[in-house]
Amino acid sequence: MSVMASYNLINGRPATVSPDLDLLRTWTDRPLVNPAATIAAIHDALDQGLLTPADIDDTVKQDLALRFHLGEFDPDGGVTADEAANARLAREAAAESMVLLKNTGVLPLRGPTKVAVLGPLADTVHSDRYGGNAPYQVTPRQGIAERVGDVAFSEGVDRIALRQTGTGRYLTGGAGPAGAPIRVFGGAAGTAAQFDVFDWGNGVVTLRSAANGRTVGYNWFGFVNDQAQPNGWFVQQQLKLERRADGNTVIRYAGYEAAYDRALSLRTPYLVVQADGTLNLGAATAQEATPFTREVISSGVDTAVAAATGADAAVVVVGSMPFVNGREDHDRPDRNLAEGQAALVRAVKAANPNTVVVVENSYPTALNWEQANVPALLWTSHGGQETGHALADVLFGDPLHPIGPGPSYTSFRYGTLRTGASTVDQRGTVRVGVDVTNTGARAGDEVVQLYTHQRTSRVEQPVKALRGFQRVRLEPGQTKRVMFTLAGSDLRFWDVTRDRWVVEDATHDLLVGASSADIRATGQLRVRGETIPPRDLRRTTRAEHFDGNRGTTLLDEAKAGGTSVAATAAGQWVRYTDADLGRGPAAFTGRFANAGAATTVQVRLDDPVRGPLLATLAVPPTGDGYAYTTVTAALARIPGRHDVYLVFGGPVRLATFTVS
After folding, report:
1. What is the pLDDT of residue 260?
2. What is the structure's pLDDT at 229?
3. For residue 584, is it left (φ>0), alpha (ψ between -120 and 50) or beta?
4. What is d(CA 607, CA 605) in angstroms, rounded to the nearest whole number?
5. What single string gives the DSSP state of each residue in 388-454?
6. What are phi and psi of 77, to 5 degrees?
7. What integer pLDDT is reported at residue 39 of this predicted model?
8. How far is it, in rounded angstroms, from Cα 217 to Cα 127?
9. In the predicted model, what is the mean pLDDT of the chain?
């Protein structure tokens, strides 16, 4: 068994060193990653006769046969597999992954005479870190052009030149496929001095040299226009074009700064022109960087609007660059479209009411303005070599391949929800079924989804929790019964008051539909479970096990393990619901870490502002966020069951507490 952790932070601690990984070790009595143990196990199996050399030979033969079949050992590296069948499969996979998010009648496109294909992802097929090398690429522009002939096209990105301020010299790139070191050179802003600016959000851009169509990146020694796209573990093609107060533009290297020359890139991330005219790292601040005058050769928005104006439909392809926006060792600060991409969508929509926005993204994206204002939205991942063909299939409504969950080009009717039983306990199961009919004129696929909602609970429950889904293919007029099996144990959740799973005694709504926002049939199910008792705060309570909060966050309690509640400002609080205070507690004791100034923590009941104040704890500085001290205060004695609020007077961390 092998496990690979993610690279993001979990409660302030890198996931790669999370103590939660220890949980995985409880799932097996075997070492997780231990080649020596694996070899020993194989020898042991051979000694016992459970495994023979012939078994090993067969396994190796299967592996080698596949590699030979794929042409890995051919002198020309050729592929002997059925290329036509592979293309059909790639096209089908790409199309079936697409989701129609919104359609007010613009789709499917019905043979328009002129289509504008626009956007920074309109004429490219990006690969990801773990993606294979595609044998060919069909871009959205190419796929749509095959349907309608020539298309109006613009990537919607600015083409600029950067002239060194105070000189007549421009940044230039090499014209050959290998590019050349970026350097300043005299003369006019010809093709060699022009760069296309691709905006990936939060100020990060990539520059594609007009001289050879290659992306500019850092190669440990300087900057060269030699990459087909941003790539690599250290994504060194990321830049920021920052505008100084004096109106000049400076360039900041925004690549992964834990690279080979970490110390240099951290100390001097701004770019300067060297004595030989080349560009390199060399300035600690924007004021020390080489200033440039940014000259716009052509406006991306203007060229896109010109292409969209008068077209029967405008298809805008926006989204992410996998190596920039979603790499393993990087957390995105938000889920928005890049600022430049959002502005492009707004401008195109203003120029052409029949705008279709295609979001090509392997990660969640917030589409608030687009959802409210654009008539059609389609989501797709980075779908591989057949992306363009698959996209055209969906946009023109063949579809040879159905659209995923979301609106469809046909319509479906749901019948009455039927259940095999009216009650279930945590050990039982119940069958849930519904008849679905295609009431439209087209064959189509419907993704039928089952949700539940727990009506009453000690804790706040999700409005809808997805419990299952099934894809069903229906011809016009055809009806099929879709069945789900729901287990009582599926309805469990983690009880933070007792650190264990629980199925509560409650009634659950059963909800079946085409999406969480499109429920077509409902029912109910009585679940026989248990009632969670009041909190017992006399036992040591981990602060992270709160029922509600405002403003606080979770951080690492110590380098090695544990999680603490961290307040960052006065007025933030955490709530512990339905605590049994008996005849009235006498004292509160908490373990606090305080890297800043002395602060306070109030203990209140039932309301964080107006509730009875039981005590105010004075928390002294501890000198470090990982240095804890125990603080105790006497409490005003109020008996009964109450919600207990801890209201923080300033930045502080709380690991555990007791009310005694």
Report:
1. 42
2. 92
3. left
4. 6
5. HHHHHHHHTT--SS---SS--SS-EEE---EES-SEEETT-EEEEEEEEEE-SSS-EEEEEEEEEEE
6. 65, 25
7. 83
8. 17
9. 91
Confidence of residue 68 (pLDDT cuts 50, 70, 90): confident
- In 146-257, beta strands by DSSP E: 152-154, 158-164, 170-172, 183-185, 195-199, 205-209, 215-218, 223-227, 239-243, 249-253
DSSP percent split of the chain into helix, strand, coil, nearest 5: 20, 35, 45
In single-letter form, the type of residue at position 49 comes to G
Rounded average pLDDT over 557-577: 95
534: β partners: none
Q: Compute the distance between CA of residue 138 and CA of residue 169 in angstroms, rounded to an integer.
A: 39
Give the Cβ contact number of residue 101 at 10 Å.
19
Percentage with pLDDT > 90 across the chain:
74
Residue 567, CA distances (Å) to 23, 348, 612, 658 in order: 28, 44, 21, 19
* Residue 304 to residue 316: CA distance in whole angstroms: 9
Q: How many helices (H) and strands (E) does the chain have?
A: 11, 42
Task: Look up residue 531 and give its DSSP letter.
Answer: -
Please, which residues bridge with residue 592 across strands? 629, 654
Burial of 221-247, coded b for 16+ CB within 10 Å and e otherwise, reads ebbbbbbebbbeebbbbbbbbeeeeee
User: In which element (H, E) is residue 93 found?
Assistant: helix 83-96
What is the pTM for the complete model shown? 0.75
Tokens of 462: 């999700």
Could you give the CA distance from residue 535 to residue 343 in angstroms, rounded to a whole number?
51
- The model's confidence at residue 406, banded by pLDDT at 50, 70 and 90, is low
pLDDT in tens, 624-638: 999 999 999 999 999
Closest CA to 311 of 358, 356, 354: 354
Q: 3-state class of 160 per DSSP?
A: strand
Q: What is the pLDDT, as a whole number, of residue 258? A: 43
Residue closest to 279 by CA, chosen among 229, 324, 246, 239:
239
Return the closest-CA partner of residue 23 out of 8, 38, 5. 5
Nearest Cα to Cα of residue 198 among 382, 366, 323: 323
DSSP string, 591-648: EEE-SSS-EEEEEEES-TTTS-EEEEEEE---SSTT-EEEEEEE-----SEEEEEEEE
Cβ atoms within 10 Å, residue 284: 13
Among 37-51, 432-446, 518-532, 539-553, which is the least confidently predicted range?
37-51
| Dihedral angle of Cα 121, 125, 130, 135, to the nearest 10 degrees | 180
Are the C-beta atoms of residues 131 and 328 closer than 8 Å to each other? no
Phi and psi of 247, rounded to 5°? 95, -10
Q: What is the dihedral of CA 253, 172, 158, 109, to 10 degrees?
A: -100
> Contact at 8 Å (CB) between 243 and 249?
yes
User: How does residue 110 score in pLDDT terms, banded at 50, 70 and 90?
Assistant: confident
